[in-house]
Design a protein that fits this description.
single chain, alpha/beta, TIM Barrel, eight-stranded parallel sheet
């Protein structure tokens, strides 16, 4: 057996409903999954499917498109907070233990603000009240993650979601596990080709979400870093079969039967797990 259970994020790129994905993940060998969230989504149905199949509903990924707006008081910030609080309540009511959220979105030169800390504080306070873990994920806007972890890192409700691909293409391969690994509660594992632009410009188009070992990530090093931090939680992949605009790296996945693609994803997850030790019984 592996040291870690293996999970996979559901994706609109897979061409199946979430219940169909959950069932197929189980058949292929995954132990659990995470989903996105929107108002009125089927989280209750998805949790029922997970329970029926004996799957782990590892986390819910909260909406993030207005994350940058939360650093200034505005009607958009209020609406974003309302969504996040509703997402937290859905997690609590359906016994999903973790809500993943972004600290920022965008590539401008903004800086964290005290207003933003106070706005995010409303979400942290509700997570504490409901007993749901918040996992702040590394994305673009690294200073915003740093500000939130500095202010709220001591909260028992706050943890870190480490995205291996984002670290390579958004964080210039800075070892974020060295900074926040002691708060690590979940992973988003995937591969890419780093930053494409010769001048070092970071763009969304580099965030490819390839299968592990299809890019330039050092998976042996990743395993060693997870070992260094003593991480024992699920190894969770976050993949896409759709290429970014103007790119073609994922096209080969789109041509595959979805069962074949997900079976390959499970094989790659097992290869990553094997780097941490253990063997199948």
């Amino acid at each position: 057996m592996w040291k870690h259970k293996l999970c996979l994020g559901t994706s609109g790129s897979f061409g199946l409903s979430v219940p169909e994905q959950i069932k197929l993940f189980k058949e292929i060998g995954f132990d659990g999954f995470f989903t996105g969230w929107s108002r009125g989504c089927g989280i209750k149905e998805w949790k029922a499917s997970a329970d029926e199949l004996g799957m782990i509903y590892q986390s819910v990924h909260a909406p993030f498109h207005y994350a940058a707006k939360m650093w200034r008081r505005s009607e958009e910030a209020d609406a974003a907070v309302d969504d996040l609080l509703a997402c937290l309540r859905d997690c609590a009511e359906n016994e999903v233990p973790v809500m993943v959220m972004h600290a920022y979105i965008g590539f401008d030169s903004s800086t964290p603000t005290q207003e933003g800390i106070e706005i995010y504080g409303k979400v942290v306070a509700e997570a504490e009240r409901l007993g749901v873990k918040l996992a702040f994920e590394n994305t673009e806007g690294e200073p915003f993650l740093a500000a939130l972890m500095e202010h709220f890192g001591d909260s028992e409700a706050v943890g870190f979601c480490w995205d291996s691909g984002h670290e390579m293409c958004y964080n210039r391969s800075v070892d974020l596990l060295a900074l926040y690994g002691k708060k690590l509660i979940c992973t988003h594992l995937h591969d890419n080709l780093g930053i494409k632009a010769y001048d070092g410009t970071i763009t969304w188009h580099d965030d490819l979400h390839l299968l592990p070992f299809d890019g330039i990530a050092d998976w042996q090093g990743i395993a060693a870093r997870l070992e260094r931090e003593g991480f024992t939680g699920e190894l969770t992949l976050e993949l896409s079969t759709v290429s970014k605009p103007g790119r073609h790296e994922n096209d080969i996945y789109a041509k595959m039967d979805i069962v074949d693609f997900l079976a390959e994803a499970y094989k790659r997850a097992c290869r990553v797990a094997a780097l941490r030790g253990g063997s199948a019984l």
